[in-house]
Structure formats: C-alpha cells, structure tokens
Amino acid sequence: METRWLETFVAVADRRGFAAAAVELGVSQPTVSAQIAALEKEFGVALFDRDRRPIVLTDRGRALLVHAHAILGEIESARGNVSESGGRRRGEVRLGTYPSATAGYVPELLTAFRAVYPLIRVRLVELGGAHLHDAAIHGDVQLFLRQTTPPLSETVFRSHPMWREKFKVVTPAYHPLARSDEPLAPAQLLKHPLIMTGRYDTDGLQTHPLWFSLRQPPPLVYQVSNPQSLVALVGAGLGVGVTTQLAMDVSRTDNLHVRDIDHPDAVRDVRVWWPRQRRLPLPAQTLLQFMTDTAGVPYNTLDTRKEPRPA
C-alpha cells in the first residue's frame, strides 16, 4: 500500500467525488479511480458506495478514514519535524468552524498565523456547531471552534477557552422592545417568538444557564445557521432575534435595534476543541498553540508581530 493511495482516498472522501478529488490533487480522474481501486483490492472491500450521488463512504470506508487521517497525520508530523530542523514548519491542518466565527474571527486568525507560518496551510471546514464534534471524531477536522453548551464529553475531547461574547437581542427599529437601550429582562423574551442562530433541541437549550434559569425553553419559531439569515428574518418582522456579539459584528444591522440581555449568564463561551485520544500532527499543534497564545484577545486585534511559543 502506498501513501499516495491514502491521500487520494481522503481527498475523495472529503470532496465526495472522484472528479473533485482529481482537481484538488492535480492528477487525472482515471489516476484517482485507479488508486482507489488499488486500495480496495488491498483491503478486499468496497470503500465507497458508487450508486449514491454524490458518492458516500461505506461502513468499511468510514473505518478506514479514521486510520488514514491518523497515518497521514503521523507522516505529516515527521515531515514537519524534519522541516523544522531546517528552520521552517510546513504542512496542512484542518480547522472546523461555524459561520459567525468564520466571518468574524477566522480571517484575522489566518492572516496573523500565515505571517508567522507561511508554509502551513489551514483548510477550513465550516459546519453547524452541532456537527463539528462528529467531524473531529471521524477525522475530518483536527481542531474545531465551538461553544461550551451543550457540553461535550471530557473523556473524548480536550479544549481551551478562546473568548466570551454577550448574547444580543435583535428587533426591527419599530418593535416595542426597541424603545429602550437598557439591557432587556430575560423574562421578556418568553413573550415573543424567537429566532436564533444554531441548531439545538429543547434539551440542548435547557443546558444553558440562561434558559435554565427561566425554567422553560425559549419560544423558538426559526433556527438558522447564518447570522445574516437571522437579520433578514428579524427585519421582515418574523420574530425577535437572539444571537451573539460576534454574529452581529459580521452582519448588516440597518433599521434594526440591538440590545443586551440583563442576566449574568447571557453569554456564550467559545473554546477550541480536539480529540483527546488522537495525537495532533505538528501543523495542528502549531495552530493550536498559536490560537491559545491569543485566546481572550479581541478577534479583530490579533497581533501579527508576535512570535508564539514553539508548539
């Protein structure tokens, strides 16, 4: 079995297609097909369900993907260690993120990181927060940003705090709740249909101290992934928005009114997470160290002049 077969396998799994993987790898589609066929012959099993469109991994394929990421990660670490001895770190790291973090935090992070480590490529995988931990378990991402609620198992994941941001209430400028700039009593939220960013079931929402203190779940009418979708729905008068400061910072809020919530737990804590049982390759270790070095720094003021401690 050759390493390039595993690299091709991971590319097909990530891109969910032979043609897309060929473009990413810079080879012909017949080459990709031949390498996947060779890998399937090596293991004696089908790794992809070719009857589905786009193609999907079989159960055996999903099992191999975990090992493939681990093997390639070890090889990448070895390459990184050898390269570092020559003075430069290089390689690739897959970072999972969610829409408002992608828009509000990640551009500044990548700009600062690239200024220090230009030879390390960061591949972004944007998902809803509820799916990021699954992506990490399956090896699709090595690090991911996610809020702390609902909680993740500490036996499965390690994490480091990144930042805390306030919840915000968003209404049309003509809405009764827009008559004041003072923080809103949280009980007032229960009197209005709410629109929120994120994907949560009732039990998941109830784990957050704010909603738990109200002793009932919020009256949700819409849940969306993108902050701008929330802004559009609120602007159309379809409900009162509840989201975070970061989401508002990356959205246009013309003709809208934004105010705080008067509750000590009306905040979101965001952490960077990674699987506890999986050794991070050197590029991922380097990005993790860089992120934790700047944790708590406002996301629009990362200092590109700072040389982080070695990972």
TrEMBL record:
Gene3D superfamilies in UniProt: Periplasmic binding protein-like II (3.40.190.10), Winged helix-like DNA-binding domain superfamily/Winged helix DNA-binding domain (1.10.10.10)
Keyword set, alphabetical order: DNA-binding, Transcription, Transcription regulation
Family the UniProt entry places it in: Belongs to the LysR transcriptional regulatory family.
Organism superkingdom: Bacteria
Record's protein name: DNA-binding transcriptional LysR family regulator
Keyword set includes Disulfide bond: no
GO terms assigned for molecular function: DNA binding; DNA-binding transcription factor activity
Species classification: Bacteria, Bacillati, Actinomycetota, Actinomycetes, Micromonosporales
Organism name: Micromonospora sagamiensis
SUPFAM superfamilies: Periplasmic binding protein-like II, Winged helix' DNA-binding domain
Cellular component, GO, one term: protein-DNA complex
CDD domains: PBP2_LTTR_substrate
